[in-house]
Amino acid sequence: MRGGQILADDGRPFTGAILVGIGGSALGPQLLEAALTARDSGPGFSLRVLDNTDPAGIADLLAETGTLAQTLILVVSKSGSTVETRNGMLELRAACARQAIEFPRRAIAITLAGSALDELAQREGWLARFPMWDWVGGRTSVLSPVGLLPAALLGHDWRGLLRGAAAMDQWGRVRPARRNPAALLAWLWHQQGSDMAFGTWSFCHTKIACRCCRATCSSW
Ligand SMILES: O=P(O)(O)OC[C@H]1O[C@H](O)[C@H](O)[C@@H](O)[C@@H]1O
């Protein structure tokens, strides 16, 4: 898509995506977008997320996006049967119909093989289907296609992300515990008490621009 081989049905490139999903099916992509996309990089591929069913929020998102002609619609649901996600998808389908745009030609499903969403995407011939795996928890799915496809669309080094995750996986197994970052974090947590007593410490190991971290930190 970024190479221009997959184009919208009007022959122009896709310039953005709307991701529909909730919980783990939306937070990982939002975190990647917030943490990795430079705020000063100028117009690039845009990622908008529809993660609730608030009619005013949906109306705002559609107004901001304008025409959907060059917009991909990523429908993300591990179970493939989450009602809020289905409602969001139906809203976007209706918006496409209002604009005389074919929904399946820009729709991509990320879901468990054989789920209701997967079957719908297959039946209607959506642009693409990507798998989730049963053994990956929804809330930890950012390194599956849930996060990697948006990362790739945004132009980020998704292979590098996977390499980094593999390195952390190895590092998390290191002994002795004092050289193991996961064990050190667990120890710090334990020392602070088990009662979410985060008030006395904080850490920020990536970019200040990470809105998700900022939102979380400010609530501590
Ligand atoms: O990915 P889905 O099956 O649509 O589920 C989406 C989300 O649903 C609920 O909010 C669960 O608590 C989350 O853990 C899950 O990520």
Automatic annotation (TrEMBL):
Protein name: Glucose-6-phosphate isomerase
Source organism per UniProt: Nannocystis pusilla
Main enzyme class: isomerase
GO molecular function terms attached to this record: carbohydrate derivative binding; glucose-6-phosphate isomerase activity; monosaccharide binding
EC assignment: 5.3.1.9
Entry-linked Pfam families: PGI (PF00342)
Cellular component annotations (GO), alphabetically ordered: cytosol
Protein family per UniProt: Belongs to the GPI family.
An individual GO BP term: glucose 6-phosphate metabolic process
Enzymatic reactions: alpha-D-glucose 6-phosphate = beta-D-fructose 6-phosphate
Metabolic or biological pathway: Carbohydrate degradation; glycolysis; D-glyceraldehyde 3-phosphate and glycerone phosphate from D-glucose: step 2/4
Keywords: Gluconeogenesis, Glycolysis, Isomerase
